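Protein in question quoted in full.
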Amino acid sequence: MRAPTEALIVIDVQNDFCPGGALAVAGGDEIVPQINDLMDDFETVILTQDWHPADHTSFAANHPGAAPFSLTDMPYGPQVLWPVHCVQGTVGAAFHAGLRTDPAHLVIRKGFRSGIDSYSAFFENDRTTPTGLEGYLRTRGISTLTLVGLATDYCVAYSAMDAARLGFAATILEAACRAIDLNGSLAEARASTVSAGVIWG
């Protein structure tokens, strides 16, 4: 068992990010058994869940004529327009059926405000609107985080960078993650996280 100051953060292991889902990450379901095993090593386990309203502005379908994976400008900066995914209350938004959820002490739902996307477990994409995760970790006395889940180069990387920026020791356990790797996004995420002080394990 890890020290009480350590927590496992499981990012977005949801049906829409697994094979057959609306925004499937190749091999996304392969990491479920390893994540389940890891949960036994941590006193604190936290799950995150993408939780979008149907009218979310990050969906290409809500921008007439826009293609999925194209870029648009939002008030908070450039935004990838995604296929419709993880709509609140749908099967796609549910956790993968094989994922253990009972060990979770907290589930952070993100991206539920229609006008702003949220990759990070800590902040929405304006980089200032908090999810509440930081306060929870601080009040629990947690200072060291291991991050796993989907997708390596988006929600996992953004969460790890924010963790490091906030002063947490953060490790991305790459074997328990899978990446989208959109136009070199995995290499970019690796460089950005390493420069922020994140360890890749």
